[in-house]
Design goal:
InterPro entries: DUF485 (IPR007436). With about 130 residues, the protein is mainly alpha-helical. Helix content is about 75%, strand content about 5%.
């Protein structure tokens, strides 16, 4: 899996982390992550604030009995918990499909030295057409 610990034999002292952060692969990973996380976060926060505002200002609506002693507030509160679990499962599935493979490729390039070689070639102008 993508979270396997590095072996003690891998020397990462040569890694230019700012160059890794500037690489197109890493930038793509960040874009993919942000394009998923920020919209989902915005929707979840809006849903949470709607619940809080309803609980604060719409007492009559929230105390409406649905069945037995269960009211709208209890159902919406339970929906908050269900939403949290659903978003967590969605994130884990999305990350496993999109983030982890990209991150693993970047990590493999760093550990094997391919990234450093490619960075050095780009810095020296090799393979770059001007």
């Amino acid at each position: 899996m993508g979270n396997d610990a590095l072996s003690g034999e891998v020397d990462l002292s040569h890694v230019d982390y700012p160059a890794v952060q500037q690489s197109p692969e890493f930038q793509k990973l960040r874009r993919t992550h942000r394009s998923f996380v920020f919209p989902v976060l915005a929707v979840c926060l809006a849903w949470y604030f709607v619940y809080v505002l309803l609980a604060s200002y719409a007492h009559d609506f929230m105390s409406t009995r649905v069945f037995g002693s269960i009211n709208v507030a209890m159902l919406l509160g339970l929906a908050q918990v269900v939403t949290t679990f659903a978003v967590t499962m969605w994130y884990v599935r999305f990350a496993g499909k999109h983030f982890d493979p990209q991150a693993e490729r970047i990590r493999d390039e760093i550990e094997t030295g391919v990234f450093a070689e490619r960075s050095a070639a780009a810095a020296s102008g090799e393979g770059v057409t001007r």
